[in-house]
Design goal:
With about 300 residues, this protein is α/β, with parallel strands linked by helices. The chain has helices at about 1-40, 45-60, 80-85, 85-90, 90-100, 115-125, 135-150, 210-215, 230-235, 240-245, 260-270; strands spanning about 60-65, 70-75, 105-110, 130, 155-160, 160, 165-175, 185, 200-205, 225, 250-255, 275-280, 285-295. A hairpin with a 3-residue loop joins strand 12 (about 275-280) and strand 13.
């Protein structure tokens, strides 16, 4: 027993030492990179080189095909590239749900990120998509991706946060990377109900789903996809009227976040929707829930 404990302790010590080395290496690499950036930006030639590099980075794009649907997305960083490369495997049930949307139906993509699913729905079946995305970092790639796939006539960007009321509030972000997620609007918790580690925040406007239809004259959706990492139940709370006429909802919920899970189910059932199935699953807790009108 003592020998086993000693072995585990020794392995943990090696692991901790490895993590420390990696942290030191990453810090040194970051400092060296910052030094190069500062040097280049201090003169006209260097500034031109930096600008050209950024332009080239932003123009990097990747093709992806799912079935007969071919799409192209800008991939200026590793995260954007990962999202594209894992398009068919990360959330296959979401794609199955999108495949079932009838031609020309109105879809609200709430938490559209850089537009992977908005673009697929528009290209696959000609859906009229309203892409709700408040992140100033993701909005650039979202707009670029729409233009790249020539879908300006199918997708409308709505750069506001959905919640349960109209008004400004803090949009808190745990990442400023293109394609970043794990943000919250008007609250302090993350997708599991824990404290969000915010590294960047700003005030922006929010409104409810019912207000978006009433104030912005956005067509009522037949289908709604919601993936906003935590405040899904607030968004549903502000959409009582909207939900009454929705055919299906795909929403990501953490079963371990009791307040979110219970309130989400209550709002959707009150709207006449029934849980068809739970899809995916993160450590047995977080699922995409597929809700449909009437009996499942």
């Amino acid at each position: 027993m003592a020998c086993a404990l000693s072995f585990c302790f020794h392995n943990q010590t090696i692991y901790d030492f490895f993590l420390e080395i990696m942290a030191t290496f990453k810090s040194g690499l970051k400092n060296a990179f910052n030094g190069i950036i500062c040097f280049l930006s201090s003169n006209n030639v260097g500034s031109y080189v930096l600008a050209a590099f950024v332009r080239q980075l932003l123009d990097s794009s990747t093709y992806v095909a799912h079935g007969s649907t071919e799409m192209r997305y800008f991939t200026p960083n590793a995260l954007a590239n990962y999202r594209v490369k894992s398009f068919s495997t990360k959330e296959p049930d979401t794609i199955t749900w999108l495949d079932a949307i009838p031609k020309d139906a109105v879809l609200w993509d709430v938490g559209a990120n850089v537009g992977l699913y908005s673009i697929y729905a528009a290209m696959k079946n000609g859906a009229s998509v309203y892409a709700f995305e408040p992140s100033v970092f993701n909005l650039e790639l979202l707009a670029r991706n729409i233009f790249l796939n020539d879908l300006q006539g199918n997708i409308v960007i709505v750069p506001v946060a959905l919640s349960d009321r109209v008004g400004p509030s803090l949009f808190k972000m745990s990442s400023t990377a293109w394609g970043g997620a794990l943000s919250t609007f008007g609250q302090d918790f993350d997708q599991h109900g824990g404290k969000l580690r915010s590294i960047f925040e700003y005030q922006t406007m929010g409104m409810s789903m019912d207000d978006a239809i009433r104030l912005l004259q956005i067509p009522a959706p037949r289908f709604i996809k919601i993936d906003v990492d935590g405040i899904e139940h607030f968004i549903l709370r502000g959409g009582c009227e909207t939900l009454r006429n929705v055919e299906s909802v795909m929403v990501e919920i953490d079963d371990g976040f009791a307040e979110q899970a219970e309130e989400t189910a209550r709002h959707l059932r009150n709207a006449g929707l029934t849980l068809l199935r739970k899809c995916g699953g993160d450590a047995g807790r977080q699922y995409n829930q597929w809700w449909v009108r009437g009996s499942a």
